[in-house]
Design goal:
The chain is an all-alpha fold. It has helices spanning about 1-25, 30-75.
Length: about 80
């Protein structure tokens, strides 16, 4: 399951880059550009959510590590 989330994030990020390149193209009609922009906004929201969840997980892991270090220091005293 964890790999699926990472792959989804990476896939979404690659699609965002593709959309950015497409929007730089002057040959797009307005409607196509708006659809791509809308898709990009949704992908961006999803990526931001994934990054925030990762940040929370990292913070939780760091707290566990700090607790282990504290317990080890107390044990060694």
């Amino acid at each position: 399951m964890k790999k699926k989330n990472i792959n989804t994030f990476e896939t979404e990020l690659l699609r965002l880059q593709e959309i950015s390149s497409l929007l730089d193209n002057d040959e797009l009609d307005l409607e196509s550009a708006l659809k791509l922009y809308d898709e990009g906004v949704e992908l961006s929201r999803s990526c931001i959510k994934t990054l925030k969840e990762a940040e929370i997980r990292i913070t939780e892991i760091k707290k566990k590590l700090d607790k282990i270090k504290t317990e080890d220091e107390e044990f060694l005293e």
